[in-house]
Design goal:
The complex is a heterodimer of chains A (about 325) and B (about 300). Chain A has about 325 residues and is mainly alpha-helical. Chain A has helices at about 15-40, 45-50, 60-70, 75-80, 90-95, 105-135, 145-150, 160-170, 180-200, 205-215, 220-230, 230-250, 250-255, 265, 280-300, 305-310, and strands spanning about 70-75, 100-105, 270-275, 275. Chain A has a two-stranded antiparallel ribbon with strand order 1-2. A two-stranded antiparallel sheet of chain A has the order 3-4. Chain B has one domain: MetI-like (MetI-like fold, Orthogonal Bundle), CATH 1.10.3720. Classes of the chains: A mainly alpha (about 325), B mainly alpha (about 300).
């Protein structure tokens, strides 16, 4: 029988080693898909579609060049008539018998993700901390119902409210705009931010503000000068969670944006090369898109549990 | 004197409470509740969002009757149920297993946990895209690895209607098992050591300790994790939209994918609103019953 007890003093060295081995194997297997995508981003288009899949390959930046540019294929005599390429990436594209026709839409899509992500994060954390403070400190009628109501908005399938929002935004002129998407993501994140921040603020002793108020601070001053600085860690963790959510969001982005305010997630799948999907370019887009989230995850590791359970489980 | 000064200095607590809560409440009402009410209203009409000039008629419960009487819809519900049930069962087992292993304190424990958790933080849509590459029947790594162990020849995980429902279960499991794991781990760490010490004194075997101490203590945590996953997977859209987009045919057309097709491709706004309301009521109903059961288990 597997040794399943917890008490570490009892766990034998062997069972601990066995556990560590299984966990390491799982970790390696689970990271293969991600590593494979990163590796693919450094392959050439030909190498990415060779079988059996190439584990060792000559690295190429073709994926990244293809991600950032639009290209068109040209006949050989036309290419010969052109002056020699100025840059390494032009040379790379020429060697595939193509010329660069302009920048691709990846950069604007990526910066849309950043603008909308930061905007929505700022507003949801700001409004969320106000509401969380009030719900944490004051007697509010129907408090529990209110909190449950705030949480329940998270249960709507996004597609269910997408149609009315689509119509509403069309009437208000907010369709396919940054402002519209920032408002939308702010609202979607509010439930998370209120619940998480309320938990963090519950943990700050009331005595701090009371002491400040005896010293002559008003309630508002106490909130801004005493409570908020105390809650910095919680606010930062909440902000990262909101950012990750906005960064990853797809359903609203694909349904409500097209040209102007489209974010990266609906764009990456549409990167098409000649004769099908351009896997190195998709790999490159995916890699650049996932790196920030991976960094955030490492930064957040202590608060991860709290964030994913809306504060229901605290370590 | 002092109270007058206080009054001038700042607003009353009650006023502050409302000033602080109001913006959140107003936004939620405007962007969440209003659209929901709007959707409920539209669900009783024959409205098409792409035909603007057309007269909108009130049709009563016709949309609801049509949906509930449609065999196709029950098929989608079955596909959704298959997806939800299997992902929950597999993720509960593997997640709990991993948590039990991680709970044995060995070196590098925290680093390994962080690395294992990575997949669940990624964008589901982007995950869907790169798994189509891994699943590619000609060049995909997944097929190569499977064929390495047993030669199936060429097989198409997302192109075959028997394999496709499993392809989405695999990816969801890959992505979200860490979620169950993390929550179970918190449960395991909350068990006080003296329980085991007392059991040792009573000469309970390791197996008995597991059944009588470990399992009952983790269960509420596991159930909570499954509640979150259940709700999320019932409304699953992004991952599957990019991975199989409901295909082949409609083999992986989950409720939300079908809803998107009806609402944004066929523009049957009234009809799809009724379906959305049905889905929402289902999630809410299941969720409430589940929470009641969960609380009963916790109280025991």
């Amino acid at each position: 029988m597997m040794d399943t007890s917890r008490s570490p003093s009892e766990a034998s060295g062997f069972s601990r080693k066995l556990a560590a081995t299984i966990i390491i194997v799982y970790m390696v297997v689970t990271l293969i898909p991600i590593s494979w995508m990163v590796a693919t981003s450094f392959k050439s288009v030909d190498s990415a579609i060779s079988y059996p899949p190439e584990v060792f390959f000559e690295p190429s930046l073709e994926g990244y060049v293809n991600l950032f540019t639009n290209r068109s294929r040209q006949p050989k005599d036309y290419l010969d008539s052109l002056p020699p390429p100025d840059t390494w990436y032009e040379e790379l594209v020429r060697s595939r018998e193509m010329v660069i026709t302009g920048p691709s839409k990846f950069l604007p899509r990526y910066s849309n993700s950043l603008i909308i992500g930061f905007g929505a994060t700022f507003f949801s954390v700001f409004l969320g901390s106000l509401a969380a403070y009030a719900l944490s400190r004051f007697k509010v009628p129907l408090k529990d119902d209110l909190l449950f109501f705030i949480l329940s908005t998270r249960m709507f399938p996004p597609i269910a409210v997408a149609v009315p929002i689509f119509i509403m935004y069309r009437k208000l002129g907010l369709g396919d705009t940054h402002v519209g998407m920032i408002i939308l993501y702010t609202v979607v994140n509010l439930s998370l931010s209120v619940w998480l921040l309320k938990g963090f603020m519950d943990e700050i002793p009331r005595e701090y503000e009371e002491a400040a108020m005896i010293d002559g601070y008003s309630r508002m001053q106490a909130f801004f000068k005493v409570v908020l600085p105390q809650a910095t860690t919680g606010i930062a963790a909440t902000a990262i969670f909101c950012m990750i959510f906005s960064w990853n969001e797809y359903a609203f982005a694909v349904l409500l944006t097209q040209f102007n305010a489209q974010t990266a997630p609906p764009f990456i799948p549409t990167i098409i090369g000649e004769g099908g999907l351009d896997w190195p370019a998709i790999g490159a887009g995916t890699t650049l898109f996932l790196i920030p989230v991976m960094i955030f995850t490492v930064v957040l590791r202590k608060h991860l549990l709290r964030g994913i359970t809306f504060g229901a489980v605290r370590k | 004197m002092k109270s007058v000064a206080k009054k001038f200095k700042g607003l009353s607590d009650k006023a502050i409470a409302w000033i602080f809560i109001a913006p959140t409440l107003i936004l939620l009402l405007a962007i969440n509740i209003y659209p929901l009410i709007y959707a409920i209203r539209m669900s009783f009409t024959n409205f098409y969002a792409n035909k603007i000039g057309r007269e909108v008629k009130f049709v009563g419960l016709k949309n609801y009757k049509k949906i509930l009487g449609k065999e196709e819809i029950w098929e989608k519900m079955q596909i959704t149920a298959h997806f939800v049930c299997w992902t929950l069962v597999i993720q509960a087992l593997i997640g709990l297993g991993l948590a039990l292993l991680l709970n044995k304190k060995f070196k590098g424990n925290e680093l390994l946990t962080t690395l294992i958790v990575l997949p669940m933080m990624l964008s589901p849509a982007v995950v869907g895209v790169f798994w189509t590459y891994l699943y590619n029947p000609q060049v995909g790594l997944f097929n190569y690895v499977v064929n390495f162990f047993y030669d199936f020849g060429i097989f198409d995980m997302i192109g075959s209607s028997t394999l496709a429902p499993w392809s989405i279960v695999i990816v969801d499991t890959w992505m979200w098992t860490p979620f169950t794991m993390l929550i179970c781990l918190a449960g395991l760490r909350s068990i006080p050591n003296y329980l085991y010490e007392a059991a040792e004194v009573d000469r309970a075997s390791k197996w008995q300790q597991f059944i009588h101490i470990t399992l009952p203590s983790v269960l509420p945590f596991l159930l909570l994790a499954l509640l979150f996953r259940g709700i999320e997977n019932f409304k699953m859209f992004d991952l599957v939209a990019e991975l199989t987009s409901g295909g082949p045919g409609s083999a992986t057309e989950l409720a939300s994918i079908n809803l998107k097709r009806e609402a944004f491709e066929k523009w049957k706004t009234g009809y799809s609103s009724a379906f959305a309301v049905i889905l929402f009521v289902t999630i809410f109903g299941f969720g409430n019953v589940y929470v009641k059961v969960m609380n009963k288990i916790k109280d025991r």
